[in-house]
């Protein structure tokens, strides 16, 4: 599909794209780019065979490439666009994997004036709590959803190419309006991460924390796995999508207040109905999307 692919930020997601693209024969050569402080990770990526080579000079990284994938934290994307602007080529396709898409479109508008028609923002709904190239795997995107949020002026050929690229990496691709994407992901990804971070933050600050963690078992571990995610990545995501997240936090506070009231008034019937509604809703979601 591509002769030369450039990955800016060869971490969990960038590294997994490189591994899967190589495994599927989607490109002949993969070059990684990063800053001086990313060099150790890039060296590891090269030694693992995830990328063919790396450079700390962006002009060399994007020379003669057919596709550039930006896989850095969302807050860095505006500065990456600024650095790419003088090097931008009409012969290449540009995409990113940021977890928020409104911020990527806004950054492109700010840097370029209008979103370039060969920029196709994308978001794999797949990941892990671990970071860096050592966490990357070749099947991360297999049978996982991926959302493309093209601007109105996007080139249909570029959109089509990115869609096919992700399908060949194993993803189930949907095309979505940017605002809708950010609203849906606030509920399904951002709020759950905030909840997990908040719970562990609260419990971790308690005096009896060592005892709490000593007796924590499966439920606690399942619920809080994502609180091991990278704090830098998640502060960026939450800040970029706060307008969608804050109203959801308000709603959740209302739900917790309701449960508190039911306990205070010994309303075990309503408590049972609330838990039953949630259990059934989750089962419907599992049946519909996972068949298990
Ligand atoms: N982790 C997930 O579950 C997940 C899932 C979907 C999308 N995403 C998105 O993918 C992107 C990357 O996340 P990740 O989990 O792969 O993170 P990561 O930390 O594993 O990888 C990011 C890489 O980018 C490099 N980097 C950081 N700032 C840079 C800069 N200014 N210039 C060049 N390189 C830079 C880092 O060295 C690192 O190797 C983020 O935008 C995130 O929102 C993450
Ligand atoms: O499985 C995980 O650890 C994830 O956090 C993956 C997850 C999510 O489902 O919330 C995290 C961020 C993304 O942008 C997409 C996927």
Automatic annotation (TrEMBL):
Keywords: Amino-acid biosynthesis, Aromatic amino acid biosynthesis, NAD, Oxidoreductase, Tyrosine biosynthesis. It catalyses: prephenate + NAD(+) = 3-(4-hydroxyphenyl)pyruvate + CO2 + NADH. Residues 3-292 form the Prephenate/arogenate dehydrogenase domain. One of its GO terms (molecular function) is NAD+ binding. Its EC number is 1.3.1.12. The keyword NAD applies. It is an enzyme of class 1 (oxidoreductase). The keyword Amino-acid biosynthesis applies. SUPFAM superfamilies: 6-phosphogluconate dehydrogenase C-terminal domain-like, NAD(P)-binding Rossmann-fold domains. One of its GO terms (biological process) is tyrosine biosynthetic process. It holds the Pfam family PDH_N. PROSITE patterns: PDH_ADH. It comes from the Bacteria. InterPro entries: 6-PGluconate_DH-like_C_sf, NAD(P)-bd_dom_sf, PDH_C, PDH_N, Preph/Arog_dehydrog, Prephen_DH. Pathway: Amino-acid biosynthesis; L-tyrosine biosynthesis; (4-hydroxyphenyl)pyruvate from prephenate (NAD(+) route): step 1/1. Belongs to the prephenate/arogenate dehydrogenase family. This is prephenate dehydrogenase. It comes from Methylobacter tundripaludum.
